[in-house]
Predict the 3D structure of the following.
Amino acid sequence: MSRMNFQRTMPLMYKYLRKENWYELQGYNKMGDNTFPNLMALLTGFNSTRSMSVCRPKSVAGLDACPLLWQTYRQLGYITAYAEDWGRFSTFNYNKKGFVKPPTDYYPRPLMLAVEKELKKVLVSRIPYCVGRRHYAEYIYDYAIQFTRVHKNQSTFGMFWTNSFSHNDFALPSSMDAKILEYMHTLQKSGIFEKSIILFFSDHGMRFGPLRSLDSGFLEERMPILYIWLPNWFRHKYPQFVHSLQLNRNRLTSPFDIHATLRHILELETPLTELSRPEGCPSCHSIFYEVAESRDCRDAGINDHWCTCHTFKSNSRSDYHIKEISQQLIDATNGYLVANNLTDVCQTLKLSNIESVQRKISLEAKEFESYLVRYEAQPENALFEASTDWNNKTQRIPINVPDISRLDSYSQLSKCIEDNIAKKFCICYDYPELMP
């Protein structure tokens, strides 16, 4: 869920967080395409490549050896919990092998799978929204409430993640606005706010669909929500950290900074110079220290395609080099499918239309021009968006295919493969509507 859509669809929660003096990071920018890389940056400090190579999520027991943050908390005596709804598409199980051993002290995935299997389900936007007589997400939040009550007098680290009311339908979060507010009041009345640091956050905004296709969709996708609650004892004991957090509310931050912050919480008396830095972003650090106002996306570990700091100017779609850029993007995408031996199941894409072109305005002198290009391909009017540079001398673009965004819903079109990146580019031959 994006910052903008949160304010739009959950006004009660938005008003509550502002009134209760939670700190919002308004410049919080995602660093990867979908859920997995963004959560891994937050939980491990790894970039996308290292997350796959070190944690090996597609290998059995690979994730069991992954240095996820809750392990560090557990080693220091914290009771840990991790719960997530929508079992088939959960973060560590969708096209991945999941955990062989429970990753935390409390891990209710078996319960969630049983609930989803045995109770009556009502699907909304192809997600199990109501399960039994409750919203699916309520099982997760109830679990969170029970976890905090049972271990009220102990140190705890819990992560409670929900997908079922926000992932596929940008309007659906409104149905949970009052309920989430009720959970917040329950935590507040139980005294949890008096001793806990709490993060209320998302991983990204809408990646496809009508909201993403708007002019504001670029920001909708890239700027998720992140609010942080600091208990009064923390505010009084560490006023310098609170001051830095106030300054950072309007500055560029990323999941790498949140990883550094969660590690910093375990050693609050350690000076900044002695704190460990995220491997994926050595220049990132705890948000309890001031982030430079001049910081750019490179400093925050954010790839250029996901960066929201650019200034754009509309460009003609009919220019020769724009047509060449779009065709080279299509060629590179088809080349990716060939390189991954997917041409037997995925159709070859053909450029059909250039939807829009925006040139990135830069104050630096460069040998190339940078563009954000939105283009359509056949079959199925597949809609893509890519950031790329154009070298006038070589008449070529450098390609990073995984960073090309797909703006229309494609889950039903790419069921024949499991690779998350290739799914964005694959139109299966056996898709029912394509059969003769």
